[in-house]
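Internal tracking record. Fields below are filled automatically when a chain is submitted to the structure queue. Please do not edit lines marked as system-generated. If the sequence contains nonstandard residues, flag them in the REMARKS field before resubmitting.
Queue: standard
Priority: normal
Entity type: single polypeptide chain
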Amino acid sequence: MGYREEKEERAAREAKRNAIRREISRLAQKISVARDIIEGVNECKRNITRGTEQWNEAYNAFNAVPINNQIFITDLFEGNIAETLSSEVPNTAGIMVNTCGQMESLCGYIADQISRLNEYISRLQTEIRELYVELAAI
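SYSTEM-GENERATED OUTPUT FOLLOWS
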């Protein structure tokens, strides 16, 4: 092999190394973005969980007081509002309980997405390891 061919071969190997390094950098950036997304989604999940827990505590405290479960209170003048409330409060409370349950389900879906993102990161890390092996072989 002559000097010129050797120089061209070295240049080709260096170009291939640089291409692999760029690919490693690109994949590492994707991992960084995925980790940032996981952190943001985890923060949302924590906020939802915290809000659900606070709502459940308040709801349970409200239900622990026997008079709070009654709309009409015997021997007490309540005016016309008691009749309106007696039809609206149970429905509203039911909607709130249902919404709270949906929030808990949402947390499960969020956990699934986090798991998928972690799997994605693992695949990218495997690709990076393979590229390092390829880089070492050049």
